[in-house]
Amino acid sequence: MNDMKFFRPILILVLLLNLSSCKDSLTIQPDNRTVADGYYDSAQKVEQAVIGGYVDLRRALLANHAFLMYGEARTGDLKVAVDFQQIVSDQKLTADQRYVKQISDWGYFYDVIRDANNLLDIISKADNKVLNAYQRNLFKGEALALKSISYFYLARIWSDIPSAEKNDFGKVFTNKQAVILASNFAGEAKAILPWMLINDDGIESLALTRVRFNKTAVTSLLAQEQLWLGKAGDAYTLLTNTFTASTTDSLSTFGLSLGADRRTEVPLLPLASNVVSVPLDRFNAIYPATDTRRSMYNISAGENKATLVVTEADVLELLPLREINLLLAEAAWSSSRLAEAKIYLIKAATGAAEDYSTLTQANFGDALLKERRRMLMGTGQRVFDLIRLAKVTVFIPAFTAADVQKGAAYWPLSSNSLSGNSLNQNSYWLSKN
Fold first, then answer.
1. Helix, coil or strand: residue 102
2. 113-162: per-residue pLDDT in tens?
3. Which of 227, 257, 375, 376 has a CA between 20 and 30 Å from the CA of residue 126?
4. From the centroid of its chain, how far is CA 51?
5. Euclidean distance between CA atoms 156 and 292, whole angstroms
């Protein structure tokens, strides 16, 4: 395999993007990037546009450790060695602090959506001399998947959000409407994305597949969106029909390719042991002494912390294979298939000290949340899980049920995000301004 052919367009595009000026904050804007007519006259040049979407998604999630601040760092499960960590874990999300204000802005996510919409226009105009059938389906599927994951993150972080679609640009979507839109894009992408990507030599490439959207990744994403919408039966059907015995050898994880970025707030190693850790008392509470998953960490009693063992320093997993059985377990449980749910949870929780075979419909959710916490540490999903499973007040005691009802679980909107649309700050964070 010659997977270096994949990295050339990445390097070209990153170089082009790095020539642009840094911005402390961003907001939703119409397209203002111009490319000369006729530029996209080869598959390689179209692929540059594809990679641009991944670059902006990486910035959306990694700038100032945003994905952790939205997830485990906000609950205190992970500590990030930056000054604003304590502000976030104290839920002071409207604080007048530069980096808190930056991650309160959603601009990078809208950059991804703009990238994807531009890419879809490019693909629609490209003739068969530029893109063959495989390339056309792959690039279109990636564009749709990038839109889907961006809208899904926006809805889970901020709840109600404006549309960036041409036919209703600026229209405010409710949380549900935004996730429905995201799931529609994911469904379209699933129909055309391959299980495995092929390189320029026509050989299936694991290196490519793990850092770009594929059928495994978009199916997992779609299942998450369906579970968020309360469509557990649909998620169960999707997962069981897609992930079968015949597809086992085709499954692949999905993550972000890591590398240098001129935006200095984007960390090169986002889960590095000198930056991200679990306080030892929290670690021992999450993983009992007999839980073999403790081996996923380096434990330092002297420093009173545990740090993640990072096996792949060049990829940040977002939709890992280990989540599939957790998704199947949740979909089965939420659609009243308890016996199957227990089987999937037991498969997912290999190494757990607990006996999950005796779970009931009533206590299954707590066990599921416990295992998602253990198995997905460092993926930034923790607060999203708490919102979806209605456990915010249990694990973020600063909030009451009334606070959550007023929108406390969602991130406050930055002043830039509120500019130029009909959105208002939710009532909880409005009272904190």
1. helix
2. 999 999 999 999 999 999 999 999 999 999 999 999 999 999 999 999 99
3. 257
4. 17
5. 32
- Residue range 344-350: average pLDDT? 97
Q: Which residues contact 128 (CB under 8 A, 6 or more apart)?
A: none
Average pLDDT, the chain: 91
Residue 41 in tokens: 């006259």
Q: Which residues touch 302 (CB under 8 Å, ≥6 apart)?
A: none
Tokens read off for 354: 């607990």
**Is-contact 144 186, C-beta < 8 A?**
yes
Phi and psi (nearest 5°) for 76?
90, 0
Please check the confidence at residue 170 and state whether its pLDDT lies above 70: yes
How are beta strands 161-162 and 297-300 bridged, if at all?
unpaired
Contacts of 140 (CB under 8 A, 6+ apart): 120, 123, 189, 192
234 membership: H or E segment, kind and range: helix 232-242
To 10 degrees, what angle do helices 175-192 and 215-228 make?
160
- Could you tell me if 348 and 375 are in contact, meaning their C-beta atoms sit under 8 angstroms apart? yes
Q: DSSP 3-state assignment of 183? A: helix
**Nearest-angstrom CA–CA distance, 261 and 122:** 25
Encoded tokens for 16: 């082009």
Integer Cα distance of 279 and 70 in angstroms? 18
Q: How far is CA 288 from CA 308, 329, 348, 354, 416, in A?
A: 16, 22, 17, 9, 44
Model confidence pLDDT, tens digit, residues 362-412: 999 999 999 999 999 999 999 999 999 999 999 999 999 999 999 999 999
